[in-house]
Amino acid sequence: MKRGIWILAALLAWAVSPVSADLRAENWNAFAPLKGELTISGGTAHIPVMKTLSTEIMKASPAIRISIAGGGSGLGIKQVGEGIVAIGNSGRSPKPREIEKYGLVLHRWAVDGVAVAVHPDNPVHALTTAQLKAIYAGTLTSWKTLGGPDRAINLYTRDASSGTRSVFWKKALGKGEIHAKANFVKSNGAMKSALAGDPYGIGYLSVGHLDASVTGLAIDGVAPTLANVKSGTYAIARGLFSNTKGEARGLARAFIDALYSPRGQEIIAAKGFIPVKG
């Protein structure tokens, strides 16, 4: 099985009947008359929500198959625009030229912070923006300078198609340099694994992916918590989008409506994001 891809249940064939947004969270009754395959790709921050929601829907309606792939925001936008998938997830708003080129309709269902993170054994718990910029530019290279061990700082970053990288680059680095020797990882999950295994590493990932295996750093005295993201105090934040080519129909419409349902909002909050209703 390829990394980042989950194939989750049975049967094919598309259904195009409209679905009410008034979904019952207990048993997903709105999906009962539907069947077919729904394909989703793109931003990796979205995957925990996508997986949980898809599992519940397919348990309630075995005639539905939902396939979820990562690949980054740029890939999600491109694939939905080219008709390869029905929903393309992105951790950034598609650019105006992308919206115009592909006829995209944007569905923003959560707000997410992007946390700068390190191994939990690292004694450094806070940075200034100037220090962070110097680290990623490659001019500040030792943890000792920051009160940590006398070891080199190992940089981790995402590839250019990542919405997480785009937000980090713009809002944390002010579009500053990311050193060419930084280690590339392909997803939020891969970033967490890399930092959890490297006591001298530094990287960035969705606040929703923070747990005991990685520590989020305060930036200019503000910690990457959900409360601070929600209040706007923590400014390294972005919307999470599920984009469709034109107005969503059939299973895509039902799935997006499910994200805005009470149960969908519960799942979003449980995965560490701030739900956006409607």
Automatic annotation (TrEMBL):
Organism: Desulfoluna spongiiphila
Keywords linked to the UniProt accession: Signal
Signal peptide: 1-21
The protein, known as: Phosphate ABC transporter substrate-binding protein, PhoT family
Source organism phylogeny: Bacteria, Pseudomonadati, Thermodesulfobacteriota, Desulfobacteria, Desulfobacterales
InterPro entries for the chain: PBP_domain, Phosphate_ABC_transporter
Residue ranges constituting the PBP domain according to the UniProt record: 32-262
CDD domains: PBP2_phosphate_like_1
Key word Signal present: yes
Keyword Flavoprotein appears in the UniProt entry: no
